[in-house]
Amino acid sequence: MQAAVFHGVGTPLAIEEVDKPELRPGDVMIKIEYCGICGSDLHATQAGDLVVPDGMILGHEFTGEIVEIGAEAGDEWQLGQLVAAVPVNACEDCGRQCKFGRGIHCANNLITGFGVPGAYSEYIRVDSGNVLSLPEGLGLREGAAAEPLAVGHHVIDKAAMRPGTNVLIIGAGPIGLSCATFARHCGARHVVVSEKSESRRARAEQMGATATLDPGAGDVAEGYAALTGGPPDLVIECVGVPGMLGMCIDLVKFQGKVMVCGVCTQAETFVPLAALAKEVCLQWALGYQKRDFEVVLDLLANGRIDPQPMITHVIGFEDLSKRFEDLRTPTDECKILLRPQTKN
Length: 344
Description:
6-stranded parallel β-sheet, Quinone Oxidoreductase, Chain A, domain 1, Rossmann fold, alpha/beta, single chain
């Protein structure tokens, strides 16, 4: 089968013929229809602490069709069934976080596309316990947005946001857009997104933002106050570069909350006294649980959330290597989906 293979930092992904994986007991084989390019994939292929091993096949945001069913996979799966999957491969029995459904925190977890081969490929082998059937009426393209949307759902859930909350989101990439969607869905009064890109600001307004700000055009605190009457109760950081934490602490109201979901791989510095003086709650949110995926898929199928503004391009293998590298430099693109079955 064809797959995009990582062979080292500074080297573009190589499109190669590789062996199709063999099923183990409990597995299903999925023919990939769509797989999103995630910012985490970019982090995992650049110099730093998160680099994946040579030979890894990336990709963890995917949908597809079941084409093989292994022994012990369970009776609920059928050939031709359309599915997504939670890309968390926890051990389930180490007695720690995975025991409570928080597999992403399991010490033995191997995330799909980082620790085990992912979905930048024509086929993927998945433990049936991680597979989720797409509800009737939900397309494969829209379903491929479930993973970033699940992150946004998890962030708002962890924030314990109450209806009527005033929210400021920093960054309108896929995660920022997902947070905007669920902040609005859960009853936020104001959902303001700060983003440099004009096209991404437009997408934010399509996905739940009540207003947007261009941080290059004026002071964000002043702009937010002019729109809402005061500082935000909740600031969500979705950029992941040094300097963001201090900025968010300065922006949030007294006794407000800062949620951090941007992936920053560099040292960060801020003055704790600024947070202490305001009694700011600073909290991180990582990934999701299976329940987040289940809720997102139901909402997508019922038309209560719309991922279409997030999806900007669909490409085949012939364009993947270049598009992947182009995403290292900020552009107006948002979510690019690979469609491995596309042929020239």
